[in-house]
Write a structure and sequence with these properties.
It is a single chain. By secondary structure, the chain is low in regular secondary structure. Helices cover 10% and strands 0% of the residues. It has 1 helix and no strands. The protein starts with a helix and ends in a 78-residue tail after the last helix.
């Protein structure tokens, strides 16, 4: 799956993207509230300004991702690998 497919499916009402491979994807400024991105591979992704309110990113790999200005209110990051390589508890 690439960024365009994810955005298209999200806009059509789909919220299930667990395990998605989105390494190096440009999702800057995209609204993905309530999306299920559990175990997604978001290594190196550009998520600058992305809206992830209430999203589930449990176990997601965000290593090297740009999270500047990301809106994470209510998001689940348990077990996610953060940009610096640490794992969120």
């Amino acid at each position: 799956m690439d960024a365009e497919e994810l955005i298209s499916r999200y806009n059509a009402g789909d919220r299930e993207f667990s395990g998605a491979y989105l390494a190096n994807a440009n999702l800057s400024g995209v609204a993905l509230g309530e999306a299920n991105l559990n175990e997604a591979d978001l290594r190196g992704a550009n998520l600058e300004g992305t809206f992830l309110y209430g999203a589930s990113l449990s176990g997601a790999n965000l290593e090297g991702a740009n999270l500047d200005g990301v809106k994470l209110y209510g998001a689940d990051l348990s077990g996610a690998t953060l940009p610096d390589g640490t794992v969120q508890e």
